[in-house]
Amino acid sequence: MSFYEDLQWRGLVHQTTNDAGIAAWLDEKPRTVYAGFDPTADSLHVGSLMGLVVLRRFQQAGHKPIAVVGGATGMIGDPSGKSAERNLLSKDELQKNVEGIGQQMRKFLDFDANDNGAVLANNFDWTGSWTYLEFLRDVGKNFPVNVMLAKDSVKSRLGRSDGPDKSATASDDASGMSYTEFSYMLLQAYDFVHLNDEHGCELQAGGSDQWGNITAGIDLARRMGRPQLFGLTWPLLTKSDGTKMGKTESGAVWLDPLRTSPYQFFQYWVNVDDADASKCLRMLTDLSREQIEDIETVQTAHPEKRMAQKQLAEQLTLLVHGQDGLEVAEQATSIFFGAEIADLNDEQLGQIFSEVPSKELSTDKLGGDGLAIVDALVEAGLAKSKSEARRTVQQGGAYINNRRVAGLEQTVTNADLASETTVVLRSGKKKYALLRFR
RNA sequence: GGGAGGUUUCCGGAGCGGUCAAACGGGUCAGACUGUAAAUCUGAUGGCUUAUGCCUUCACAGGUUCGAAUCCUGUACCUCCCA
């Protein structure tokens, strides 16, 4: 199976600018490909995973990937897929974000390979020093406004309902767009030309919402006398219910362990719907076609084993957080789902329960008869009042180190320390809190 | 400007002088079931050293009564109707 066929099988090809020839073109010799990333935060999130994984695949197949962080375009805001004008970020914020993102990319791309080492570029570097007049003369001149107006990304924002897809063009939220956003396309188009000049980049990949920007770049290159360039888009990663992948009630799922812990990250994937799991396996993991098909067979026969979700979580956590992150996530998972907590040290507990609230108490409390379970629950913040704590215990919903509390008379003593200083309390299925005794 | 009505525990909403910490529904929290799902079922749901006890709560402030969320007076806010 060729590289391109593999991409297709994985469902990573949505549209290309040359369906007939691109497979052979990619096989012919190593190509240079680029994809852009939005520096709206100092970390990437699951939404950006597709781009990273696609570039990674290209690199593994021998092609040279360029990750472009939009330091310049980020100052303007891509109107594609947005329904409203975007807030602009300051230069400093963007600089910080670009650095953070570049760091994360190292996990996906090899920047040191000899022949096809990945390149990280920031388009602010080649656009930041432009003057307005230069830009208008060199780039703007090559953009017919009527063509720009015909792009879906523009059309939907202007609320014109004469597009090919009338239903998607919600004319009732015609919020309009500023001249600044209108110009976004020109900047991204020029990126492609620049990368072709500097790195011989011939292919731009992006999400399907980037199609208009990609073709704009190809058009611009032609008008400016550059070679024929190519474009490829992947489908947007959506869930079977139509919503975006990588969002939880509490916000985006980030790749930065400080924003989304390895455990939470792992859990996100374990909880993916059955209907979406195998799609994600294909698109996002490095597993081979055979492996994935095996998993799918098991999944169909025994959905309750959640094989696809487990594999997905394991593969992606390993990729994003490394072996250590995966181990912590798995350990945390077994503990959060009932395994008894014992024989751990403070450091392990601290990692596993990093986002669990904790409270420090004096060691004295453990002496004598110990600390009454009801008081312990209140101290740990798991119950608002003693009455509430009492109810929880009576209903069998209180746990010390994942062992169910037998009754109201039970106390927390030295024997209950799960590590040097810490007792893990739990109320109900998922609510944990730590008591640290100093 | 004239007229009518409302304000209750997280929300909606009963309550019409004692048996009201206050029906019922929703939510929430526990438990069971389960695939770390959904649905369902069970229990709990003001606080207090769990008590046939005490304290705080029915817009706010006073009053009548042995006794008030319930009656009266005033204050604030809200809704509706007629101009």
Automatic annotation (TrEMBL):
Keywords from the UniProt entry: Aminoacyl-tRNA synthetase, ATP-binding, Cytoplasm, Ligase, Nucleotide-binding, Protein biosynthesis, RNA-binding
Motif 'HIGH' region in this chain: 39-48
Catalytic reaction list: tRNA(Tyr) + L-tyrosine + ATP = L-tyrosyl-tRNA(Tyr) + AMP + diphosphate + H(+)
EC number(s) reported in the record: 6.1.1.1
One Pfam family in the UniProt entry: tRNA-synt_1b
Transmembrane segments: none
InterPro entries membership: aa-tRNA-synth_Ic, Rossmann-like_a/b/a_fold, S4_RNA-bd_sf, SYY-like_C, Tyr-tRNA-ligase, Tyr-tRNA-ligase_bac-type, Tyr-tRNA-ligase_bac_1
Domain of life: Bacteria
GO CC annotation, single: cytosol
HAMAP family: Tyr_tRNA_synth_type1
Complexes and interactors: Homodimer.
Name of this chain's protein: Tyrosine--tRNA ligase
Organism: Adhaeretor mobilis
